[in-house]
Structures are given as structure tokens and as C-alpha cells.
Design goal:
By secondary structure, this protein is α+β, with helices and mostly antiparallel strands. The protein contains five helices and nine strands; from the N terminus they run αββββαββαααβββ.
């Protein structure tokens, strides 16, 4: 089960000065390609007691020079693990165009004002879902989950304002390393990694495939 990757690659001379600018270039290309859920990203965290990693897919909601933002329940498994250890890894798996971006950094909670502003943009049903689901906890049945949602729908009809759950919010990942992986022929892939230096600049290095 092998695919032949593209011949054109990623050269240092073509790379942007910083990783967020380079990410924006690639992200715009991914969106234009029509890939399903282009902002899907795999988030990996670590259990502080067992050191066992865990991964899940979330949706990136914002990115800028400060980093990458996603939202979740702070009481979820990833939320608990990030409270104990803020080190995090992000992976954008854009397989149809033979590209990946791998981010290593530190996750910090977004402010409540920023969280509330985003929460207001969510569909009404998604707002209710954030209340109905105690993310990552055991639930007795699907029927119980649907009942909780139904009770919330009765309490907050479509035209009402749903408050932001206190344990729901965002994380902003401040990157320390950002690797851009471009599939090439003969498995000689291009891997350019941006590394944050002590003076908060960026160094670009090439990795063997």
C-alpha cells in the first residue's frame, strides 16, 4: 500500500521567514484544494502519572502570530492532562496533497472574553451540546445524553442566549517548533523545521526524511 508522491518540493529559499506565515500559505492551499475538514488537527497530550500519550482530533478555530487555537471542555482528558503538563503536539494530516505540519509547543488557556466571543459564534445546538456533555466522563447510555440535551433545549430555546459553560474554553498553542513535511518521489521527502531561538527568532533546519 504505497502512493507515489509529487516531484515538486519545499526549498529553504521558498520558505517564509516565520512558521505562521508558512502555515498560512499551506493552509490557504489546503482550503483551495477542497480537502474535507481542512482545519482538523490531531492533538496529543501526556498523562502525568503514567506518561502515556493520548491523541484525538479537534478543529482548529484560529491561528495568528501568537499560535494555534482550539476549544474544548477543560475537564476532558486532554484538559486534565494539559493542566498537569502544558506541553502539547499538533499534527495537521493533509494526506491528499502529501503534506503534514507538526507543531510542538505549550498550551495556554484563552481569556474568558475571547472564549465567550467564540462561543457566541457556535450554532445553537453546539452551544447546548457543550453543556450536555461532560466530555470524557462515562455516561450510562445514549438515551441519557439525549435526555440531558432535550432538557437544555427546553430551558434555552432557539432564540435565547446560552451562557458559556464554566469548564469550557480555548487553548492557544504557542509553538516552539513547527515542521513542514512535503511528500516527494522515492521517499526522499522534504522536511523543514522552524525552531524558536532564545531571542524569540526562528531558525530553519532541514531534516532527513
Amino acid at each position: 500500500m504505497r502512493e507515489h508522491y509529487r516531484a515538486e518540493g519545499l526549498a529553504e529559499s521558498d520558505a517564509a521567514a516565520g512558521p505562521m506565515e508558512q502555515f498560512d500559505r499551506w493552509f490557504q492551499a489546503v482550503v483551495a484544494s477542497g480537502i474535507f475538514e481542512p482545519n482538523a488537527v490531531i492533538v496529543s497530550t501526556t498523562d502525568p502519572a503514567t506518561l502515556r500519550p493520548s491523541s484525538r482530533t479537534v478543529l482548529l478555530k484560529q491561528y495568528d502570530e501568537r499560535g494555534f487555537v482550539f476549544y474544548t471542555n477543560y475537564g476532558s482528558r486532554k484538559g486534565r492532562e494539559l493542566t498537569a503538563n502544558a506541553q502539547i503536539s499538533l499534527l495537521f494530516p493533509w494526506h491528499p496533497i502529501a503534506r503534514q505540519v507538526i507543531v510542538g509547543g505549550v498550551a495556554e488557556r484563552t481569556g474568558r472574553d475571547e472564549t465567550a466571543a467564540y462561543f457566541r459564534t457556535r450554532p445553537h445546538g453546539s452551544q447546548l451540546g457543550a453543556w450536555a456533555s461532560t466530555q470524557s466522563s462515562v455516561v450510562g447510555s445514549r438515551e441519557e445524553l439525549d435526555r440531558l440535551y432535550g432538557e437544555l433545549a427546553d430551558r434555552y430555546p432557539e432564540d435565547s442566549q446560552v451562557p458559556v459553560p464554566p469548564e469550557w474554553g480555548g487553548y492557544r498553542v504557542r509553538p516552539d517548533t513547527v515542521e513542514f513535511w512535503q511528500g516527494r518521489a522515492n521517499r526522499l521527502h522534504d522536511r523543514l523545521r522552524y525552531v524558536r531561538t532564545e531571542d524569540d527568532a526562528w531558525r530553519v533546519e532541514r531534516l532527513c526524511p
